[in-house]
Amino acid sequence: MRVIRICFILFIAFFVCYHFGDKIIDFLLLPLKNSFSENGKIVYIGILDKVLTQFQLSFWSSVIISSPFWFYQLWLFIRPALYDKEVKVIRPFLLVGFFLFWCGICFGYFIVFPLVYPTLMNFGVAGIEANINLKDYIILTLKVLVLLGMLFQLPNIMIILGFMDMVTKQSLRALRGHVYVGFAVLSAMITPPDPMTMMMLWLPLVALYEFGILAVAFIVHPYLKRKYA
Q1: Helix or strand (DSSP H, E) at 131
Q2: Of residues 217 and 86, which shows the higher confidence score?
């Protein structure tokens, strides 16, 4: 039933986003338009590109905009498996997860995109007019925003795993080196081949991981110690 309700929420949000599709596209195109150092055009190539772009835009936008509602449904799905004391402890992290999700989206739109797109546009041979495919750009932009929103859930995931007694502050600290290398690979894949831009994504991910370790140390461990005392 929770899955059905999540699908219904996304279904309604899809049509709302479809109705306001033009305004959403203008908002998403702004970072790209600001990155044009010379003449540039945003074009569509296939006959169905504009139609498919509108549907893709509506779907991914509905995932983002309706996030408070499907976050709540996920919480209602998890809640029956928890004791009352665990519900009181974990409930605040539902709001934290929603806040972190939007932090990831804002981080992508206001920090990553203004740094990445000018770098990509000015990379390589100069003096060439840019013709950017509308469909490719919109789909890539929305997927990156959703991905960053999910990546910013890292502290929440670490806390939940801590409450499940699957990780400890000691095990998380022992994994630091491997996690940092993984973040570096992920940052290199998402960002252009520019060390500064890569660091702009890598450092927040590292900070989120360290924040998760602190949360496990100062929230999860004291709670488990009192529970099993």
Answers
A1: strand 130-133
A2: 217
Rounded to an integer, what distance in angstroms lies between the CA atom of residue 137 and that of residue 42?
Answer: 9
Identify the pLDDT of residue 38.
Answer: 63
Q: 92: closest CA among 75, 115, 117?
A: 75
Task: Give the pair of three-digit tokens for residue 10.
Answer: 């996304």
Instruction: Inform me whether the pLDDT recorded for 11 exceeds 90.
Output: yes
Which residues are within 8 A (CB) of 228 and not within 5 positions of it... i.e. 6 or more apart? Answer: none
Report d(CA 135, CA 45) in Å as an integer: 9
In one-letter notation, the amino acid at residue 224 is: L
CB contact set of 21 (below 8 Å; sequence gap of 6+): 54, 57, 58
Tell me the one-letter amino acid at 143.
K
Q: What is the pTM of this model?
A: 0.80
Helix, strand or coil for residue 38?
coil
C-beta of residue 141 within 8 angstroms of C-beta of residue 57? no
Side chain identity, residue 39 = N
Q: Which residues contact 192 (CB under 8 A, 6 or more apart)?
A: 116, 119, 120, 123
User: Could you tell me the pLDDT band of residue 12, with boundaries at 50, 70 and 90?
Assistant: very high
Closest of 113, 148, 137 to residue 53, by C-alpha: 137
Among 30-39, 116-125, 140-149, the range scoring the smallest mean pLDDT is 116-125
